[in-house]
Amino acid sequence: MSRIFIMLLLMTGFADASPVRIKDLVEFDGVRGNDLLGYGLVVGLNGTGDGLRNAPFTEDIMSNLLERLGVNVTGEQFRPRNVAAVLVTASLPPFARTGGSISVTVSAIGDAKSLLGGTLIMTPLNGADGQIYAVAQGAVIAGGASVEGAAARVTLGVPTSGVIPSGARIEREVEFDLNSLTAVRLALRVPDFTTASRIETAINSKFGRQIASMLDSGTVAIDISLASIRSVAHVLSLIEVIQVEPERRARVVVDQRSGTIVMGAEVRISRVAVSQGGLTLSVEEAPVVSQPSPFSSTQTVIVPRTSATLEEEAGRSLAEVSGTSLSELVGGLNALGVAPRDMIDLLKTIQAAGALHAEFLVQ
């Protein structure tokens, strides 16, 4: 069976790295979103909803909903197949205002087969403090399909989960007075002392005074009072567009499931000699049926016939691999003529020999 693997080399370092805006490198302390969660019902499904015998909570919420609408279902036996219980999740962005809209994700929690064509009915969304911050409702857009017959079923994607773009209306704001802050901390998404120092230098150069101070590899503090600008928002708007060249760590990332290899431009390999080979084992079964003569007392016998071979690839001579740049490294590895799957094992071995100067991550 042939196998196809992909080797991806991230060659971003042949030229000088491009500067990046500070807003793409850091998070502003205090400027954050909030997660919301709700429990509701999706109706209007074409017989693909929850089986109420296996999901009694769906029947309970359906009964409560109908009673609130003035429909008395006490003691009634109703088992619709066009209703599904779902969890609704969303993220309330920072500084979101009442009346605005946010998108929500809808996920089935019962044994519903699909949410295609369904409509989420009014669902309150609660924050971590238990308060209702938004209300969701609307048609669910599911990203899959499911086809079922008497003896087979085919599912494409995940039809039991979907989204409602702008499907929730904000009903409550998160109180946060940005202008009351006298200092703001910048939290680096990838902590690095060099990058933090460059951010500090760039900000101080922009404002012409010492308003930024590096606290550690992941934090740069901004003294708003020294900026001499009328509001915190104006200070942050000037800071976030300042461009800085981030420092990157040498890293090799490997996905063993797909055979993908990603190398950063900073990866280096010391001079090392490598030889790579492999074994191929082949086993074939060709049983022979021994048929007895007519009217004999013997029985039909299946005689096994097995052919097994073990082949070893022709040994490759030692190849010298080294790399002071990514192009040299790639050329040296390609000279070995190995497949990406074997390349993963090869890189592991080179790292074990102490010749790979990079962080090796396996996913």
TrEMBL record:
Coiled coil: none annotated. GO terms for biological process: bacterial-type flagellum-dependent cell motility. Residues 1-17 form the signal peptide. The keyword Chaperone does not apply. InterPro entries: Flag_FlgI. Keywords: Bacterial flagellum, Cell projection, Cilium, Flagellum, Periplasm, Signal. One of its GO terms (molecular function) is structural molecule activity. The keyword Signal applies. It is found in: Bacterial flagellum basal body. GO terms for cellular component: bacterial-type flagellum basal body, distal rod, P ring; outer membrane-bounded periplasmic space. HAMAP family: FlgI. Belongs to the FlgI family. The basal body constitutes a major portion of the flagellar organelle and consists of four rings (L,P,S, and M) mounted on a central rod. Assembles around the rod to form the L-ring and probably protects the motor/basal body from shearing forces during rotation. This is Flagellar P-ring protein. The gene is flgI.
